[in-house]
């Protein structure tokens, strides 16, 4: 075997050649978990002191509803003595996860990296580098969508009724809606990952474009106010563009893969 062949073969082996026992793996896992937990606690303490501006931001739609409908009682309510503190702890936890993300993501990566080949590491870095900014971009878009959804839902309030939002449920709704929009922005990355893994071909992905456009349009229509057609088209357009970008990358990867297999003689030539 030549030096080049040895180097090529070595590239397919895990970077860490040492075999760790189950006990060593558990010790390493415990250490990574403790570091992640410590980072989360510190981030939660920091986040606890910045909950006021976030509460003001997420309750801005309530203030607008109250200003537009002075005849209706609108406001944030707490059903128990500890509910205000519980709301702030929930917010500190969720914000702390985001603040501590660089540390706990690195701990996860450092734990699984020794068992990955160089090629797997390259793909993983690429997917993470694409998924993280898309997720935060989706969460930002979600933060713009949430007020419209709350104001839209308030229009269904029967005459004579009041809009009193329980603090914990209100925050859970806004957070989950932002996460849903954030995850929807990351779905194209998962499509590409499935293509690279050989689960789906680029042709199979592009064949579902009609369903993808329909889902994006319906989602955008539900997430934006009925009268705001521009916002609906903008959100739907972003989701559709991301889908076609994922399909295009998958077709490109399939083409390169077929060329490589054909050059190696593993793929028969197309009939004339």
UniProtKB/TrEMBL annotation:
Q: Name one GO molecular function term.
A: proton motive force dependent protein transmembrane transporter activity
Bilayer-crossing residues are: 33-58, 91-112, 124-150, 170-197, 209-227, 233-253
Q: Name one GO biological process term.
A: intracellular protein transmembrane transport
Concerning InterPro entries, the annotation shows: TatC
Q: Which GO terms describe its cellular component?
A: TAT protein transport complex
Instruction: Outline the subunit composition.
Output: The Tat system comprises two distinct complexes: a TatABC complex, containing multiple copies of TatA, TatB and TatC subunits, and a separate TatA complex, containing only TatA subunits. Substrates initially bind to the TatABC complex, which probably triggers association of the separate TatA complex to form the active translocon.
Q: What is this protein called?
A: Sec-independent protein translocase protein TatC
Organism annotation: Microbacterium ginsengiterrae
Q: What is the lineage of its organism?
A: Bacteria, Bacillati, Actinomycetota, Actinomycetes, Micrococcales
């Amino acid at each position: 075997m030549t030096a080049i062949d040895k180097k090529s073969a070595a590239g397919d082996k895990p970077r860490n050649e040492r075999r760790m026992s189950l006990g060593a793996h558990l010790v390493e896992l415990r250490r990574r978990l403790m570091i992640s937990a410590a980072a989360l606690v510190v981030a939660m303490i920091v986040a606890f002191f910045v909950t006021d501006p976030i509460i003001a931001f997420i309750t801005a739609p309530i203030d607008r509803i109250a200003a537009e409908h002075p005849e209706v009682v609108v406001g944030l309510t707490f059903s128990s003595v500890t509910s205000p503190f519980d709301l702030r702890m929930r917010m500190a936890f969720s914000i702390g996860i985001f603040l501590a993300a660089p540390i706990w993501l690195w701990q996860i990566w450092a734990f699984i990296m020794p068992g990955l080949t160089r090629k797997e590491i390259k793909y993983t870095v690429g997917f993470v580098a694409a998924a993280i900014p898309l997720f935060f971009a989706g969460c930002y878009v979600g933060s713009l969508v949430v007020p419209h959804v709350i104001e839209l839902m308030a229009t269904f309030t029967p005459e004579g009724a009041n809009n009193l939002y329980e603090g914990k449920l209100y925050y859970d709704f806004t957070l989950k809606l932002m996460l849903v929009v954030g995850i929807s922005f990351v779905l194209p990355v998962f499509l590409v990952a499935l293509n690279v893994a050989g689960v789906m071909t680029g042709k199979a992905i592009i064949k579902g474009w009609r369903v993808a456009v329909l889902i994006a349009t319906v989602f955008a229509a539900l997430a934006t106010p009925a009268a705001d057609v521009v916002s609906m088209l903008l959100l739907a357009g972003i989701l559709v563009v991301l889908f076609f970008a994922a399909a295009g990358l998958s077709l490109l990867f399939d083409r390169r893969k077929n060329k490589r297999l054909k050059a190696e003689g593993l793929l028969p030539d197309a009939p004339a």
